[in-house]
User: What shape does this take?
Amino acid sequence: MSIRKMTRRQKRHRRIRKKVSGTTERARLAVFRSNMHIYAQLIDDTRGVVLAAASDLKFSDVQAAEGETRGVSRAKAVGRDLASRAKEKGVEHVAFDRGGYKYHGRVAALAEGAREGGLKF
Assistant: This one.
């Protein structure tokens, strides 16, 4: 990713963060997407703590479903994993922070997997 693209994404993320914040009742689901992997965290911004985190580093053996790429399948698995960890912590409602990325591809798949896992946006 070029410096210019990264800077523009960071500006978008700052704009989003002005409006989206996590609380104890409604945690912020923050997404970071690199070229190879995707990471997600549930954050309580009032206390400044990460409640749960998940990444696709342990989902290297996930097979792609029909009509999906491997990255999208892994992102969906990360969403489901994060949702199960959130349920253990008692978190059911989240505010989705897409991190300045388009709601498309792996980011959308992660959100869909989290919804399948039982999180409410």
